[in-house]
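Translate sequence into structure tokens.
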Amino acid sequence: MQKDLIIQKLKEQGLRITKQRLILLDIILEEDCSCCKEIYYKASQKDNRIGSATVYRMINTLEEIGAISRKNMYKVDCSPECRKENACTIELEDNTVIELNEEKWNQIIRTGLAACGYAADGQKVRSITARSRTRECVEA
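Result follows.
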């Protein structure tokens, strides 16, 4: 599903869907690559005609169309059409566990931000980074 959507967006940008682009896309979708060099290394093993410039151009193109985020270490971001189930799990101190789908999670975050004066009405959340409590936080 994600691959088809990305290919469609690449075509909309006027790009040909070459064998090399498909190899790079497969590597990014299937592997945990932390940098362009890793992607290049894996791609060159599959097709030795893929150069590092091709990898960098593909990464830049995928970032431009919103398919990846370098903040997410070259992992494909979920598209706006995606409605993941169990996008968020919240555990309360009484051991109650709440499972939220992506739509409900975003609704709760937007409502909370608006109530606290942080977000304009209708403004969408791009990303959230949560940090688990460390021992130092608990003891402080």
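Note: The longest helix spans residues 102-115.
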